[in-house]
Amino acid sequence: MQPRVRKPVHDAYWRFAARRQLIFHRRARGEPAPWTRDPILQRFKFCNAYRASDRVSQYLIREVIYSPAARELDAEDAFLRVVLFRLFSKESTWDALEAATAGVRRDTLDPDQLGDLLDELRSRQSIYTAAFILCAHDAYGMPSKHRNHLALVSEMFRPSRLGRQLARARSLQDVYEALLGWPLIGPFMAYQLAIDLNYTEHLNFDEDAFTVPGPGAVRGLKKVFSDFGGLSPAQLILRMVARQEEEFARLGVDWQNLYGRRLHAIDCQGLFCETDKYARQAFPELKSNRVRIKQEYRPGAAPLELFYPPKWDLNHRLPRPQQTLDGLARTKQPPAAKNRVKTRGDAWRKLTPAGATATIGR
Predict the structure, then answer these.
(1) Cβ(328)–Cβ(32) under 8 Å?
(2) What is the number of other CB atoms lying within 10 angstroms of the CB of residue 21?
(3) Per-domain residue ranges for the chain?
(4) Which H or E run contains 166?
């Protein structure tokens, strides 16, 4: 039995992906707003079609994994940084942790001292992302969520623990299952972490061999499909991965992928979550436990330097010239720094062709 689609919503899934990706490319090229004529996309905030292009993932890749200092670290320190960053998914929190430790590593991770730091930071601002809700029970007997998370990461990276499990992994699913065995790590977070760890140079597993749909993706699947046809949510996501070129061609959609990279399972999973949000406006008759889109789009965030895992071989294809967030003014670099970009702290770092960057917001 084949799955049955709700054709208007199924088609909207692909059209949304193409329109959202076109916004991304137009901004990357520095074109002025508006970047779309879709009134829903103009009004509300949506994630990128490609997970790795979103702001927090870009920060993770560029600053946490591939910053000049981080590139010199061994695999376990690299893994620790990824896990700790993703648990908070907050750039300002990571900046505070990096400053306090002079570089987060196993030998600088002191849960008590960093717990005090985050106590103080929490009194002034949020230290966690609002994008998703994390398990908050006191698995390690600590009075606050962040202290339990610090204790978790400290335990994970003791000798012969998670590092050894990851060294033995032979697939993305192995990485996921190793993470899922730890307290405070549920299925959604385990999958997100597995993808993040796979961005590093130390793991390179097939992203399309395994996927775990989150709650938002399941809501989107139920809107796109009227009958799953006996397939699991994960199988339906992988079906979309396999059919992407066929579907874009069928609809005559102007699909511009990520500089030669196809949508992978993590991206198609995320697109179901975004389609669930989009459908709240486009197809309000399709009811779920979420009835409105929480965040409206407001420009004004600082520009990003686009950067992808070097093993993807995309960075030399990024657009130039660089422009500011709203596309109104082009950034100009000193004549002697043509092959350099300005980084955090006003320091200059040289970039190889594989490390070229472009500027984009959102």
Answers:
(1) yes
(2) 23
(3) 1-303, 304-360
(4) helix 162-168
pLDDT value at residue 218:
97
Separation of alpha carbons 355 and 359, rounded Å:
13
Burial class (CB in 10 A: 0-12, 13-18, 19+), 61: buried
Query: What one-character-per-residue DSSP string does 288-327 give?
Result: -S--S---B----PPPEEE---GGG--GGG--SS-B-TTS
Lookup: tokens for 117: 């730091």
Give how far Cα 127 sits from Cα of 10, 91, 175, Å: 37, 9, 27
Please tell me the pTM assigned to this model.
Answer: 0.87
Contact 147, 111 (CB under 8 A): yes
Say if residue 232 is exposed, middle or buried (CB neighbours under 10 Å; 0-12, 13-18, 19+).
exposed
Residue 135 sits at the vertex; the CA angle it makes with 208 and 308, to the nearest 5 degrees, is: 35
Rounded to 10 deg, the angle between the 265-282 and 233-251 helix axes is 70
The pLDDT assigned to 1 comes to 79
The backbone torsions φ and ψ at residue 255, rounded to the nearest 5 degrees and listed phi first, read -95, 120
Secondary element (H or E) of residue 174:
helix 172-180
Confidence band (pLDDT; 50, 70, 90) for 334? Answer: very low
Question: Residue 24: pLDDT above 70?
Answer: yes
